[in-house]
Amino acid sequence: MKKILLLISLFLALTNDAQTRIKVMTYNLLDFPTPLPNDRSPYLATILNDVQPDIFMVCELASDAAADLILNQAIQTQDGRYNRGVFTSNTSSIYTDLQQTVFFNTHKLQLIDQSIIKTYVRDINHFTFKLKTENSATNPIYLDVFVAHLKSSQGSPYEGNRLDMINSFTATLSSIPANHFVLIGGDFNFYSSSESAYQKLLNASNAVVLVDPINRPGNWNNNSSFTDIHTQSSHTGSFYNDGTTFYGSTGGLDDRFDFILMSKNLQTSADLYYVTNTYKAFGNNGNCYNKSINDATCIGTYSQTIRNNLYNMSDHLPVVMELETPENTLAVSSQNMVESVIFNRGNLVTDWLELKTSDNLKGLRLTVFNQLGQIVLKTNISSNNLTQLNTSHLKSGIYYIKISNLKLPNPLKFIKLH
Fold it and tell me: Which of 379, 324, 372 is nearest to 352 (CA)?
């Protein structure tokens, strides 16, 4: 099995101008956690471990309990750095309770306000963050994050519904202070850049001018010229059939439905700005047109394991991008670190877990904890750089790995499937 590097060698300079990034991610979770027969949280946990987002925007979340499931089972770290917005069922329509929310890294961000924009179909959720920077008292940085799931389907009536929703959103932009930065992400269901709702989002007369970070206009639907940015569908066949109902879209990757748009000042500000070329359709190697994301021919940067997890999680792919604040180092501890750890056969395990480690970790104590913080395994890192752990006796769930004398920016974790 192809080796997966889950912790990359990292160097963080301890200087006044140290650069710190904020990873942003949006994902349509396909009516999470139902109606699928299997628990999808282990797949989501692995995907989130690959990305390690600081802001995680989600669509199609079924309930407050579902939000807790993601927080506690999929994104939370051993040091408890993640939190989430308050979940409220959809207030815009009586026909669906599916809602959007956001999860965030409390080491970097403080949630100071949240509200809802009512529309014709679904709420648009608004979250205001303050960055936890060293200079936050004298030079505060605010980021307004909107999460939207626009009306689906092709045709003039549905395009009109999407435009109505976006008009409700843009009407609120006049209340955003001029010194704030803005992101809006989610499942927009746009088939083309000529659609009125997309054009309204980018209209230069809006109170906050928004831009598409990758600036790839055109007819995105069923067009191989945009293969690398397609996000739906990750399946050629039905995601799941319970005997009476088919869940999930089909047909393979041929639509750009999922977006993150940003305020124009993220292109010009020295305090916070978009990092060029970080906007990606996560898992899309650019060669999967009209195929399932886990098709064996779709080889590239994203491994087969990553693409299998995406296939099992949703009929959409996530979109990711990064922001940077070079002059206001985020108030999180850092250190020089050149150690590396590799999950040799992936971090989804049923029996044996294999870890490959760099030479300078030889002999250090390795401890495995469950989610209650209880120690379930202990060993020393092998002198031959390959440490094997028998996990066959462990219960299904998420486990954390701690290596003595090694302070990692993100805890290592693996998932015992059964």
Answer: 379
Q: CA-CA distance, 255 to 219, in Å (whole number)?
A: 9
Q: What are phi and psi of 168, to 5 degrees?
A: -65, -40
Q: Which residue has the tokens 């959720």?
A: 125
Minimal CA–CA distance to 23: which of 43, 47, 40? 47
Please state whether 328 falls in left (phi above 0), alpha (psi between -120 and 50) or beta. beta
Are 163 and 201 a contacting pair, CB within 8 Å? Answer: no
Q: Evaluate whether 371 touches 48 at the Cβ level (below 8 Å).
A: no
CA angle, 153 then 277 then 296, to 5°:
65
Nearest alpha-carbon partner for 61 in 72, 53, 69: 69
Whole-angstrom distance, CA of residue 308 vs CA of residue 310: 5
- Pinpoint the alpha helices (H) of 229-337: 304-313
User: Per-residue pLDDT for 335 more than 70?
Assistant: no
Q: What are phi and psi of 252, to 5 degrees?
A: 85, 175
- Spatial neighbors of 68 by CB under 8 A, at least 6 apart, are none
Which CA distances in Å does 26 have to 145, 147, 148, 318? 11, 8, 10, 6
| pTM attached to this predicted model | 0.79
Judged against a pLDDT cut of 70, whether residue 339 lies above it is answered with no
**Cα–Cα distance, 143 to 173 (Å, whole number):** 13
311 in Cβ contact with 292 (< 8 Å): yes
Nearest one of 418, 416, 395, 391 to 45, comparing CA atoms: 416
Polymer length in residues for the chain = 418
* Average of per-residue pLDDT across 361-382: 85
Q: How far is CA 232 from CA 225, 235, 253, in A?
A: 15, 8, 5
Residue 292 near residue 340 (C-beta atoms within 8 A): no
Averaged pLDDT for residues 191-218: 98
Confidence of residue 10 (pLDDT cuts 50, 70, 90): very low
- The whole-number average pLDDT for the span 264-286 is 96
Helix (H, G, I), strand (E, B) or coil at 210: strand
* Mean of pLDDT values over 226-244: 86
| Secondary structure class of 308 (helix, strand, coil) | helix
Position 251 confidence tier, pLDDT thresholds 50, 70, 90 = very high
Place of tokens 């080796």: 3
| Span 42-77, pLDDT tens digits | 899 999 989 999 999 999 999 999 999 999 889 988
